[in-house]
Amino acid sequence: MIYVHRVTIGIALILYLSSCQNSTFKEHDKNSLDLSHRNLYSTNTTFSEIKLAQQLIEKGQFSQALPRLLSVVESGEKDSTAYYYLGVVYQELGSPQNALTYYLKYLRSTPQGIYAEHSRKQISEIIGSPLNQIEKVDTIENQIRLLEQKLQKEPQNIETMLQLANWYWINQNFSKAGTLYKTIISLDTNYWSHPVISSRLEKGVNSDIIVLTPEEALKREAEKNPIVFFNVTSFRSGRSLGWSSDLKHHIYNVSGQVRNRSSRTLRNVTVQLTIYGFSGMVYDTKTISLGNLSAGQIKPFSAQFVNFDNIENVDHYDYMAYYDE
Q1: pLDDT tens-place string over residues 233-260
Q2: Global model pTM greater than 0.70
Q3: For residue 232, what are the contacts with CB-CB under 8 A and spacing of at least 6?
Q4: Domains, the chain, ordered by start
């Protein structure tokens, strides 16, 4: 019996699809939304759109900040702060290619700016290796072109190969990047321990080498955690005696849907719903049988709870899915 997924009220369901997987644009740790290190209010900009975008970033509302910052850039305003904020926003939204572009623009325009040090750090993190003279990089394409020319002159230079492969990866040319990573391994097997290569290559069962592209990573994630919940909600119902306004609801309802995102059929799928009172006290648990769930299939679930002292004391709920392999 295998179980998947558990959340409580108020937590938004997020699909990780961009998945830079364990790439150089690594998954943020628990402090990733602590924006204090970015000193967002230390700028002297007078542009209201940037100020508003700044406030949205501080609240973690990156998708709302994006169009405002793009409008500032497209308007021709000469404020490099917008470039830096766009780098932050795109990185938080899982688009390292765009993040890199705007961090580079910021550094070219303001190499000694208040966000320069953080921009250099993020660029090194995104490309998977430190980069000297970052300010001389104008575009991703030109940097790739320069490294390709350098590699032609020194075709056995592993460090150049690694840098070029990382830039290919950021530019989403996973085929070229994978070929170079494999070449590096063939020249020196010690590079299997390199953090970037080990996160992007894997030894297959027949000694072949698998390139862990974002698409492959998503496929594996779907097979590992096949059941996803969506449209999960709760509501109170069940007034008595003609629905008099002075009588309270006495039924707590939880409903939603599950989908099998894997390529296989899941057998004997059940959803377990639990409601809690304050201080984590368990009021009641119900298990709903959904039978088999074929690849891509969606099924709804719903349960009603009445086992509590007072419906107003129901604090939250959570849910888990179980299935047989």
Answers
A1: 999 887 655 555 555 668 999 999 999 9
A2: no
A3: 7, 13, 254, 255, 256, 257, 319
A4: 22-137 (1.25.40.10), 141-211 (1.25.40), 223-324 (2.60.40.10)
